[in-house]
User: Fold this.
Amino acid sequence: MKEIVVMKNSCYKKLYGKALLEISRLERQGKDLKTKLRELESENKYLKNKLEEWKNKNANTLSEAEVSGNSSQYFLEAEVIDKGYINRNSTTKEKINLYLSIFKVREDICAVRWESSKSGKTGYSPYCKNEWRQGVCGKIKGVKCKDCKYQDFFVLDENTMRLHFLGKKVLGGYPLNKSNLCKFIVIDLDKDNWADEARIIIGTAKKYKVSGYLERSRSGNGCHIWFFFDTWIKAALARKLVFILLDKAMEEAIT
Assistant:
């Protein structure tokens, strides 16, 4: 009987020791999370201050529409996009030109979608006129496109866009130009509650007079929300603007 009591006490001591270690680990984790939260709050405050500084610095460059409060300082409004009045009766060239005027990307290269017949894997790569040409294409010998001396890339223009819209090629553009500037940014939502998140984000954007354009994902299980800018801006600033918008959307969701 005495041996059983000793064994029980020993087990209790081991369990108690493990419990103390777990409590200590959780306390450390809690401190780390609090530290991370303070860092994020500090970064959020910094970004908001930088945004205000940018607004004040560029206050004199506002357009007449912006001064009158009809549009945001940075984002392209629906009225601007629709001012060309492109409709079903417009010519193919007019429609393509409208598309290219909105989706401004790098003008020296475009990408093409590919799908592996063996693995089914898909992706995008630079669309080159010399791709897989024997004795010319560097990929055959393992040379990357950016290092190939025979690179001769297609660009997004009227001819290539016709192929895209006819479904003969699935093309894409590179949003950042060589100066790391962009004219649009997109939010990708693909979780189960993507529809609710999209409604909140677009609703919040409207509240701040920003137009967001929703597009259903290729899979159907998600969406993209596009935001377009009046002019080329730094990619870092575009991300900051959207992060602030998402922060506001989270506040709306909580309240």
Notes: Helices lie at 2-57, 64-67, 78-81, 92-102, 158-165, 194-207, 235-254. The chain has seven helices and six strands. The radius of gyration is 27 Å.
